[in-house]
Structure formats: C-alpha cells, structure tokens
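Researcher: Before we compare anything, I want clean individual predictions. No alignment, no superposition, just each chain on its own. First chain goes here; please echo the sequence and then give the structure tokens.
Model: Echoing the first chain and its structure:
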Amino acid sequence: MKKTAESPEIALLREVTTAVARGRDVAKLLDDVIGILEKRLGMLRGTVTLLEGDELHIAASARILNAEERALGRYRIGEGITGLVAKTGHTVVVPDVRKDPRFLNRTKARRKTEAVSFVCVPLVHLGQVVGTLSADRAIRPGMRPLASDVALVEIVANAAAEAAAAYRELRAEREALEGENRRLRALLGDNPGNLVGNCPAMKQVYEQIRLVAPSDATVLVRGPSGTGKELVARAIQTLSPRKDKPFVVLNCAALPEALVESELFGHERGAFTDARDRRIGRAEAADGGTLFLDEIGDLPLPLQVKLLRFLQDRTFSRVGSSEERRSNVRFLAATSRDLEDMMARGLFREDLYYRINIFPIALPPLAERGDDVVLLARHFLQRLSAKYGKKIDRITPSAIDMLLAHPWPGNVRELENCMERAVLTAQDDCIHTYNLPPALRDTAPAEDPAPPGASLTLAEQLAAHERRILEVALRRHNGNRSAAGRELGVTPRMMTYRLKRLGIGG
C-alpha cells in the first residue's frame, strides 16, 4: 500500500509534540520549538517571553541575543504587542509591522523597511498567562494565508505552555535560591573564622570569640563531639595578635597514654625504646603562637600535673631530660567530657580545671541549632560540589524536611559526612531525599516522589515540587499564608489560588 505523503501541518505538529514528550531540558525544549517554527513554517525571529511579576523577559530566541538586547527586550504588562497579549490572553496579529505604531521593535532586530508580519500568542498554563510565543513572517507574493500559520502557532503554543511554565518556575526558584545565598553570605560575613551558623547560641559564641581573642587568656571550648570545637580555637587564633604565628594541635584522645607526654613536651634520644633521635614536642613547636589541646579530659592524671606546671609558668622538660625549657604560647583547650563529674570521681585534677576554665565557651549540639542545619548543609554542598567537580546548587524541600527532622547525634561532622554522600550520589543539579543516607529516612516526614527516570509526567513532578515548597513555607510561618506568600514572592491572590489548586489547607 502506498504511503500517503504527510502534510506540512501534520509534520509540524508531530515534530512539536515529539519534542515536548521527549524534552527533559525545558530551556532546550523552548529553543527547539522556535527552531521547528522556523524550519516548518519559515517563521523568523521566534521568541519566547516569560512573565516575571509584571514584566516579560526573553527566555528563548531564534538568534543569540547580547546582554543589551536582552535588557531592551523587556515589556511591562500592556506595553507593546507582547505586553498586550500577556495582559489580555488573546492572540494579536500585525499584518505589516511597518504600519502598526503598537509594534515597538525594541531590540532593533528588524529594519524599518523590512516587510514582515508579526504573530504573538499567549502561553497559558492552568488558566494563567505565563508568557508569550511570537515570530515574524516575511510578506511575499504567493505565500500561504497568514491565518493558517497563526492557527498552527497557537497549537504549538498550547503544546509548549507547560514547558514554559516549568522553565518559569525553575528560574524563579533559582533566583530565589541565589537571593537566599546572597542573604546567607551576608550573614556569614559576620562569623569569625570558618564557623557557619546564625542561631542565637552561635551568635553568642561569636561574641565570646571576639571578646577573648585579642587577649592571651586561656579558653576552654566545651561541646559534644563533632560540634566544631577546633574551628572555634582556630577562629580565636585568627583574631588574636598571634594570628601569624604557629597554631599547633594535639588531640589527647588520639594517642596511646605512653606517647602523649612525648608528643606534648618532646623527648631526648634514648629516653625510651625507639627514641632514636631527639624530638621537640608540640608545646615547643608552638612557641610564640597558640597551643590547642583537644579532648583534654582524656589527658592521663600524671601528665595533668606536668601540664599544670607548664600553664603556671610556661616551663617544661623533655622526656629523658632535666633541662628546663620555656615556651611562650597562648593556651586553648577543648573537651566533650563532663569535667565536673570527672573531678568528683578523681579522674581530673581540680587545680587544672580552674586553670583552664578561665574563659569557657559552650558549643550547642546541632539538634538545638534549628535552621542552622540548612545553612550548614548548603555550605557543605557548595564546598563539596566544587571538590568533586559537580554543579549541584539545590536541595529539594523534602530533603530539607528530612535534614531538619534528624536528631544529628554526630552533630556537624555527621551532617558534613551526610552531604558528602549526597553529592557523590547526586545525578543532577539537586540533592533529593534518595541521595541522603538511609538512617535519615527513619525520621523523614516525606520523601521525594521518585528518583530520576521514574514514570511521572512533568506536570506531576512539578505539582509535587510546588506542593512541597508551599507546605514548607507555610510551616515556617505557622500557617500564615500572607507571610509565606511574601517569602515566596507570590501575591495573596495567587497564593490562595495555588493552595486551592493543590488542595492544601482545605
């Protein structure tokens, strides 16, 4: 049977629907739609604009636009043909742009003498105008009726409207994220050292660091394991007059008891088995700078006596030597232990406790730091994405809920490890719930609907994503729709419409 030739109109619609069905990159999809109009209908200068607030911005164009042209190609609602279409939601056809004063030619893409028609149709998604699709058609004898092409462009616009809405939502989300990142960076600018956090307890820590750093006072940093005690010590050193001098660390819990004294004060050759050479200790290496003893609660009792003597007059002797040496150091210490309980049980010397507890700084556990979890997660996301050469800049609302619900027994260190796993397993530019460790899912309120490749339509995925964004915003503002709408940049009317459409709040 002889195959019937496909009409140009059917070929156009088949190509557009295929592109829409297979398109995953919505920005490329919009470019493809414009290219199909050019190839199949001979349309020129195809352009997609998207509505942002009360202004239309060019999202896709048949030709590459420079920054100046993009800036000029903006239209307020009701302004020019494009603005009129966005305002009324109706197609406008200009048979000859040379004879219609409404046509602005703002990007100067057309010559004043160029004979072209202009077609502009609205992109309507869920009853709302989200942008426009427009193109030129040359005026030449023998061409097919303009009305036929207009009808086809309207069909194409209907097919592409969902993709345009998706692109608009993604761009709005990205811009909101960039704005939030700018705000967070501004907040972080006041944080000393590499500390990240903005909760009241951390603000108090920052203030204490600034107060004590300029002095030579001994500081005891207290807090559960993994809260960042060494970062506090480094921040103190960075803000101190000794910032350009050595910063030497000794973790008392990381070494066998027999080696701690040698690591701290050094040893002479032959002082003990395997002591083949003389070695200076951390106290001597830190001369002029800062000595930081982490987990000082694990220091053996005999060495506590020697450390007390060192703190009193900054003198010590290497193991295997009676020669007295001096080291001018700023002393900082940290512990996750209950030193008061250890004193009561005779495991920590009372006189040493009072010597090191001159200026205590208490770090809160991560579970008590509220939204700092999200702040820290995004901080680690940015750093680890760069480390592993990935471009990941978002965390889904469901994943954020999961992070906030977890109790974080391992504190900031556990969160950093969690984000490293998420970055390593991420397949796109976003961290989803299924990228987080399984341990977090036991406390998760909700998971992302499906991993990449699941059989959900674009509309279903966008609706689920929009629902989570709105629900999270409402929770942050205790159900206050107006406050949540202001945060998301949505008018009260549109907020009510979106909530009603998604069945949120009854």
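Researcher: Okay. Second chain, same rules.
Model: Second chain and its structure:
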Amino acid sequence: MLLTQQDDALSTPSFANRITIPLLGALVVLLAIWQFFSAVDDREFHRDEARWIHRAVYLRELLHPFSDYWDESTWRTSGSSADEIYRLRAQPPVGSYVIGIGMLLQGEPLPHIGYWNMDHDDAWNAERGNKPSDAQLLAARRTTAAVGVLTALLIYLIGLRLTNPVGAAAGAAFFALHPLAIYLATFAGSDITLIFFIALSAWLAARVAERPTWSRAILLGIAIGLGGGTKLSPLGIAIVLALLGVILIGWRWLSGRNDHGMAKKGIDKLGLLLLSTPFVAAATFVASYPYLWPDPIRHSRNLLDYRTWGMEVQSTLWTQVAISGPREAVQRSWHRFASEDWSLLGRFLGVAWPVELWLALIGAVILAWLIWKRGLASGTALIAVVLGTMVVITFGGMGVDWARYHGPILLAMAVCTGVTVGWVTRGLKDLTS
C-alpha cells in the first residue's frame, strides 16, 4: 500500500464538525495561553537563560552578515576567553532570532548584556553586566510561551489529519497541560522552538502528501532547515524523507502497477519532492547562520563536533544523569514520563504510573495500522516519519538526562495520545449509534 489514500480525517467535514473543529481549536489555544503565560514568572532564573538572552543580539548582527562578529578567528585575537571563543559553535542561531523578534515585538530593545561565564557564580556575573534584567527575562519567556501556544495549535492540526476533532484536541490538551511542556514554554531558550519546527514540519509534510506541489515541498524544506538552525538534529528528518522518496519511486517502478488507481506521475512527483527536501533544508540552514557562509561543510562539522564534545563533558561532570547509549536513553525516558514530576498523573493526582506512556504506545500501534491502511505516501505516513525520526535521533544522541532533551519525545507522545483518544471515542460512537 504505497500510494496515497484519502485520510478519514480529511474527508469533507459534516456540518457539526464545521462548528466543532474551530471551536475546539480555539479552546486548545486558550488552554495553552492560560497554562504557559500564567507560569512565566513562577520560576527561578536559570543561568542558561542569560546566555540565550545575550544571543538575541544575533538578530541585530544578522543585518551585518559579513562583519567580524561572525568570524571566529577575530575572537581568538581579541583576548576573549575560551568560553566566548566557542560561542559561535555553541548553538545554531534560529532560537536566538526568535527570542530577539519576540523581545522587539513587546517593545523591549535587544539586550547589551555580556556573555555569562559558567566558571563564576551569579553575583560575579551580575556585577559584570552578564545578567538580564527582569523585563528582559519576562519578555524572553513570554516569547517562548507564545511559541508553545503555536505548538499546541499545530498538534491539534496534526491530530485532525490522523483522527477526529476530539482526539486532536485531546493530544493538544495533553501537551498544554504537561509539566515538561510548561517547563520548556516558560524557559528563555530554544527547546520549545525546536519542538515547534518539528511539529510544523510534520504538518507541512502531511500537506505535501495531500497535494504534492513544489511550493509545499519548499516550505517543508524551509521548516526543516529552520529546525536545524535551532538545534542540528532536525536536519536528519530531511534525509529520511529523501530515502522515503527513493522507496516510493523505486517501488512504483519495480512493481509496474498503480495501487488504488493513482496516476504514475503522482507518486513520482511526490517522491521527487521528498528527494528535494535535504537540499532546501541544507540551503535554509546555511543561509540562517552567517558563521557557516565562508566554509559551510567545515563550520557545520565544527558545530556538530562541539555539540558532541559538550555532551561528553556534561556526562563527565554530572555522572548521575549520564547516559551510556540508546537503550539507557529509552529507559530514562520511560522513568521520567512515569514519574510524579514529569507526568499529568503526577501533576494532578500525585501518582507515578505509566498510564500516559501506554496510551501513547497504543496510539503508535494505531498509527502503524493507519499507515498500512492509507499507504506510505499518505499524510499519515509522513507525519509518522517526521515524528519518529526525531524520537530515534533523540534516543541516539541523548548523552545526559536533562529534562529539556525529552521535548521531541513529548511531542510524539502528545500526537499518539490524541490518536488513542480519537479512536476510542470513535469506537464508542459506533457502539452507541
């Protein structure tokens, strides 16, 4: 079953759904606004937030992409510390751009604070102007909260392509209420932006499958590239989608037939569009970061090497959270999402049961069945590829068990939980009809 079938959720909506779908979507947005914005000033300042707010100046320096600011060698000859020298390698810039844009939209000028030195305490850094003001901190946090709201809306839109409006709303509500989502959406950093671009890529991938056009494929590649410009890992999505494109074209030509009567040019075009995503994503990634322009391949390797080195350093310094490999990463994730601190049951009932994990796993099984039914070229399959690729990459690259590294897993859990709820409610409806 390779070729696209019409997803049940994408069929012509009934009159009731024409009212229900926008109503539930509005309720999801209001719930996320309530959960995220009410918590932005309820948490203590974290020193990592100082670095992210400092890097909001990337947005100002983007207006001068050929300046010495983006030249790492100038930092080495200016007496900067080793910590500052490698600042350009520490994180890609898109998350910093987002924080900067959010601050400007709120009337808060881009900051002029120094780069936080991790070798010294809060008092030392504050004395030297490295600590953001309360206004800057709140503006940055409100920005990430807004990104969190948009992510909840995207989860709802993804759910509509996989199940019914009730299930879609359940998945989005699961995300909006989850302690980890609240933690990430109220932290002045890039992790919630990463989740947003993964969700956006999944939604756009479904739209490409629904109607394969170059404009939609280019938007998909741009979303993946911006995700890579936030954290490097989403670039892997483009590679897997390209491999899927090869499979679709190869299977269609080898089989010599047209499943479900779809025209040959349809499957060939979808495969070709998927093959284009790594090129568009790579071009977007490089374009987003002037540091890469002089030597994109070598400087991209610098970024990857620095992130790998940083993960190794963290696992050495904090052995209690070090992860030896993918198997332990899966075990750690299971225990985290079944704990009192990082689960809905823990938040509202104070119990540590893996109920949410089992609901998500059931949803994953249903999703696999839907792919078998609808085909590898369906929007359902492409959503699963995007989310599944990020889950695999997260498990494979998780060197330490920090809460923020589990964000892509939470996104997949929310979508799969919505699938479970949607199909349970569908079954109950069929039984009572």
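Researcher: What stands out in the second chain?
Model: The first helix runs from residue 15 to 37. Additionally, Residues 259-263 have pLDDT under 50 and may be disordered.
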